[in-house]
Every structure is written in C-alpha cells, then in structure tokens.
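Input sequence (118 aa), recorded before submission:
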Amino acid sequence: MTTTTEAASGNLVAALRLPVWNVLSQRAAALRVSLPPCPESPQGRWEWLRSLGPGQARQAALLDRLDALCDRLNDVPAPGDGPAVLLPAGALEEAEGFNPALTRMIAVYRAAANPPAA
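Predicted structure, token format:
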C-alpha cells in the first residue's frame, strides 16, 4: 500500500526529472562552449586537462559532474554507483536557482520526501 506522501513524492519525481535534466544539460552545454574542445582519447583528455588553467579546470570538473548527473537521470549509473536513485540529491542541488518555478517544485519535493517527525 502506498502512502499519500509516497504517492505525492512519486508524482513530483515524475514531474521533476525532465525539467531538472533540461537545466543540467543547458548548463553543461554552456560550459562545453566556454572550454576548448576536449579530445576523445584518454591520452588526449589527460593532456587537455593538464593544459587548462585553474578556472577552466573547475569548469571541466563541473561539466563532468553535470554530465554524470544527466546520465543518472537517464538511468545510466556511473561506475561505483550505489542503488538506483530516481532523483539524485546532487541533481536537485545543481538545478536549483536557475528557474524559479523549478526551484519551488524542488522545495515541494523535498518537503514531501522528508516530512517533519511527529
């Protein structure tokens, strides 16, 4: 039997997945444009990472994080991931603040997923 809180939380997960993915993928696309092109080969990527300045290296790390979170939202786990999570907390954190309506939905989701103790 599903509780009202679980049902509300499930509905919010369904409503949030695509908008959160959209925000994360838009942020990732903007970072890709701002960074020099990254080679596909592991050796080329290593040299590329070493060529970046500190600010660009932070952007590259954020890009990797956003890409991994987008994959998680598309049900593609990263190596070493634990059990599947429908809506990773990191994805919510990275999506907050970029769209006021989405930020409000995230707050509602968190309130439904973590009701106050009685």
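Checked by second reader. The radius of gyration is 17 Å.
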